[in-house]
Amino acid sequence: MATVPSNQTPILGTLLSDLEILDRITRIDNDSCIFITPLIDPDVQLGPSSLDVRLSTKLEVPVTLDVTHIDLAVRRQADSVKARVERNFQSRAIEPEGRFVLHPGEFSLGSTLEFIRLPCDIAARLEGRSSIARLGLEVHSTAGFVDPGYEGELTFELKNVGRLPVVLRPGLRVAQLCFFRLSNVERPYNSKPHQKYGGSVGPRRSGIDKDPELSQ
Predict the structure, then answer these.
(1) Burial letters 44-77, b for 16+ CB under 10 A, else e
(2) 122: which residues sit within 8 A by CB, 6+ positions away?
(3) Has residue 7 been placed in a domain?
(4) What are the DSSP calls for 120-176, one per residue?
(5) What's the CA angle centered on 60, arms 55 and 63, to 5 degrees?
(6) How many CB atoms lie within 10 A of CB 153?
(7) pLDDT for residue 3
(8) Is residue 192 part of a domain?
(9) Domain total for the chain?
(10) Whole-structure pTM value
């Protein structure tokens, strides 16, 4: 694999190019390596300034049959905010060769097939692929920032805004990661005392119950 030429000095705060991404994911040093596994086909997944990531076999699907709303009010409630959020989802697993149909207007949580670990000087941005978006499928339209020091699988927010059902299969490249070099990070994500999503395996439901204004 190609690496960054030794005579090129990286510029802090810039978007990593394909050569710089390759350099980072092939490093042996854990303190500077962007760890991603499994990386099934780098030639297909690596773009000029991003790396495509794939859909896993796990889903969190909203259940609306007996749920009228999600109430985030704290006071005068018989159960916790966490319990109210949890009741709204069911876990589903798809066979590796199976499929999942997302109908118009439906929303689900999926996750990356890849497990990633970012060093303390690299942040990432999770964005949907244009080819997928043009079919009416929104992937992680909000909250796509990944902090330096994060470790785990990444959760997708999947929504079909088109007029036709979209068939999704495990292993499909649905999103892409862009990487940014940072400096002077005082507290990476894995050092935060109240991190919500570190070490995620599979899609993680909302951790809004850990927000100070809702957990008091």
Answers:
(1) ebbeeebbbbbbbbbbbbeeeeeeeeeeeeeeee
(2) 16, 24, 34, 148, 179, 180, 181, 182
(3) no
(4) TTEEEEEEE-HHHHTTTEEE--S--EE-TT-EE--EEEEEE-SSS-EEE-TT-EEEE
(5) 145
(6) 22
(7) 41
(8) no
(9) 1
(10) 0.75
CATH number at residue 95: 2.70.40.10
Q: Cβ(89)–Cβ(109) under 8 Å?
A: yes
Where does the pLDDT of residue 22 fall: very low under 50, low under 70, confident under 90, or very high at 90 and above? very high
Residue 12: inside a domain = no
Do the beta carbons of residue 80 and residue 71 sit within 8 Å?
Answer: no
Question: Which residue in 20, 106, 157, 186 is the catalytic one?
Answer: 157
**Beta-carbon-side half-sphere exposure of residue 76 (alpha carbons within 13 Å):** 0
The verdict on residue 10 lying in a domain is no
Span 102-151, pLDDT tens digits: 999 998 999 999 999 999 899 999 988 888 888 888 887 555 788 888 99
Residue recorded with tokens 């300034």: 49
127 is catalytic: no
Phi/psi of residue 137, nearest 5 degrees: -105, 115
Q: 148: how many CB neighbours lie within 10 A of its CB?
A: 19
Check residues 163 and 213 and name the one with the higher pLDDT: 163
- Structural domain for 205, as ranges: 18-184+197-215
Contact at 8 Å (CB) between 16 and 180?
yes
